[in-house]
Amino acid sequence: MAFLKVVFPDDGMDVLIDGKRRGKTNVAFEIEAGTYTVSIAPSPACDPTECDVVLKPNETGPLSPREVSFAKV
C-alpha cells in the first residue's frame, strides 16, 4: 500500500485516480502501489491539469504521504 496527498489551494475537491474518485484534496489517503494518472474534479483552472505518479510500496505512510501539487491559474 501507499499514501497520496493531492495539494491544491481549495480543500475538499475530488481527487480522481485514473478517472475515478478516490479522495479529497489536501487529505492523505491510502491506495495500492502502482502508476496512476491524477487529476481534480470538477476540473478547476489549474496547472497541471493532470499528472502521472508512481507509488512504490513501503515508501510512504499516513504521516509522510507522496505529495502531488496543483496550482490555480
Q: How many discrete domains?
A: 1
Helix content: under 10%
Number of helices: 0
In terms of quaternary structure, what is this?
single chain
- Which outline best applies? globular
Biggest sheet features: 4 strands, antiparallel
Distance between the termini: 32 Å
Radius of gyration: 11 Å
Strand content: over 45%
CATH class designation: Mainly Beta
Give average pLDDT, whole number. Answer: 93
Count of DSSP strands? 9
- CATH topology type: Immunoglobulin-like
Indicate the structural class: mainly beta
Which spans have pLDDT < 50 for at least 5 consecutive residues? Answer: none
Q: Order of strands in the sheet with the most strands?
A: 3-2-5-7
Can you write the helix and strand succession as a string?
A: EEEEEEEEE
**What is the name of the CATH architecture?**
Sandwich
Overall description:
- The protein is an all-beta fold.
- It has no helices and nine strands.
- It has a four-stranded antiparallel beta sheet with strand order 3-2-5-7, with no helix packed on it. A three-stranded mixed beta sheet has the order 4-1-8, with no helix packed on it.
- The model has no long low-confidence stretch (mean pLDDT 93).
Task: Describe the SSE topology.
Elements: E1 2-7, E2 14-17, E3 20-24, E4 29-31, E5 34-41, E6 46-47, E7 50-55, E8 66-69, E9 71-72
Parallel strand pairs: 1-8
Antiparallel strand pairs: 1-4, 2-3, 2-5, 5-7, 6-9
